[in-house]
């Protein structure tokens, strides 16, 4: 029997036993290699020597000037009518924009041709831009938007094929230099852009490296998501303060801003300099949290003054309820609720440095909507 067990070890190459007729030990299986995901490359940014396409720069090819000189669209229609045509084609919409490092997208039958199927056989990972037209109900609040989730997208609020879920402006931009110049101003000036960091952390702060500066300055309407420090320290305002400073620096023509402030994330305590999670402060702590939120958000009103026509701030229900508790009685009396939905809001009054009596609405971001949803949500 011992000889039989040695023979089994010999033919299975186990145990490193030596053969009686050979001096070489039995071979061992090679060690298993751990699969490692390749490192994510840096986001491709705009080159420093990018050639501008604006008409204010001299053309390098004479044919570029003759491309539209015989076009009736440019010779017969005045600029005002052409702008109205541009707005009807690809303007005055709410657009989701994201940048994701992933494989190629799988076309489906849902809104914006989204599909829940993920490709496992495609290893072509690269940075990919993605966009779609938001088709949520108009009476829904801006924070209750799930257009990027395929399992919620049926797109019944909008009739038409999947082409209506996209802008479809690329073909027009590639037609000629004049088409590009006139269309880009309408594209950035009239549309509302929804940019959040669900797909890639910090995408909004990288826009100056991804989009030409004069196009960023032309954006007039945004819907963003921010986070606050989940602690009672009124000095640290974290990502929310950085977002407000970024808006004031790079978006001089901003006219409408809807901002959803969520709780969670990380914060840094100045005393210990350690990173911690969410802490539930007491009543006095929420008084400081409310002061931190409002002091930072008020800077938008001071900076833009009357130029900012629409400013709405949505807080998570947990934060909204406790921040409202520490507000003055006069502010609590201004609270109102939506007749069909569950969210509430109150008016935050701000007196600017110029003495103007302005303000903005602070809204409750309810997680669940009570009305039935059969749209692209």
From TrEMBL:
Positions of the UniProt region annotated as Disordered: 1-41
Superkingdom of origin: Eukaryota
Residue runs in coiled coils: none
InterPro entries documented for this protein: DUF7730 (IPR056632)
Occurrences of domain DUF7730 (ranges): 68-228
Annotated Pfam families: DUF7730
Record PANTHER family: 2EXR DOMAIN-CONTAINING PROTEIN, 2EXR DOMAIN-CONTAINING PROTEIN-RELATED
Protein name: DUF7730 domain-containing protein
Species in which this protein is naturally found: Trichophyton rubrum (strain ATCC MYA-4607 / CBS 118892)
Organismal lineage: Eukaryota, Fungi, Dikarya, Ascomycota, Pezizomycotina
């Amino acid at each position: 029997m011992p000889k039989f067990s040695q023979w089994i070890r010999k033919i299975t190459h186990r145990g490193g036993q030596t053969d009686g007729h050979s001096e070489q030990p039995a071979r061992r299986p090679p060690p298993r290699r751990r699969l490692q995901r390749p490192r994510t490359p840096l986001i491709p940014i705009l080159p420093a020597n990018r050639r501008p396409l604006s008409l204010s720069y001299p053309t390098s090819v004479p044919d570029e000037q003759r491309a539209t000189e015989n076009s009736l669209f440019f010779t017969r229609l005045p600029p005002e009518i052409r702008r109205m045509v541009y707005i009807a084609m690809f303007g005055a919409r709410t657009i989701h924009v994201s940048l994701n490092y992933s494989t190629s997208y799988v076309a489906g039958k849902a809104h914006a041709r989204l599909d829940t199927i993920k490709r496992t056989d495609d290893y072509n990972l690269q940075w990919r831009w993605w966009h779609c037209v938001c088709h949520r109900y108009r009476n829904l609040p801006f924070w209750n938007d799930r257009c990027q989730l395929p399992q919620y997208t049926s797109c019944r609020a909008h009739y038409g094929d999947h082409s209506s879920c996209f802008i479809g402006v690329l073909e027009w931009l590639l037609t000629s230099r004049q088409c590009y110049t006139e269309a880009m101003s309408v594209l950035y000036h009239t549309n509302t852009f929804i940019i959040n960091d669900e797909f890639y952390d910090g995408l909004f702060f990288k826009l100056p490296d991804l989009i030409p500066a004069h196009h960023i300055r032309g954006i007039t309407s945004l819907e963003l998501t921010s986070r606050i420090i989940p602690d009672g320290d009124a000095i640290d305002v974290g990502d929310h303060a950085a977002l407000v400073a970024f808006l004031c620096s790079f978006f001089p023509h901003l006219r409408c801003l809807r901002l959803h402030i969520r709780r969670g994330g990380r914060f840094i305590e100045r005393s210990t300099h350690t990173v911690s999670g969410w802490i539930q402060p007491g009543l006095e702590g929420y008084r400081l949290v409310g002061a931190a939120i409002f002091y930072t958000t008020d800077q938008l009103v001071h900076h833009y003054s009357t130029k900012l026509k629409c400013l709405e701030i949505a807080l998570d229900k947990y934060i909204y309820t406790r921040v409202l508790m520490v507000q003055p009685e006069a502010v609590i009396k201004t609270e109102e609720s939506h007749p069909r939905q569950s969210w509430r809001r109150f008016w935050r009054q701000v007196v600017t440095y110029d003495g103007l009596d302005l303000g903005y609405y602070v809204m409750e971001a309810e997680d669940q909507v009570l009305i039935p949803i059969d749209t692209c949500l």
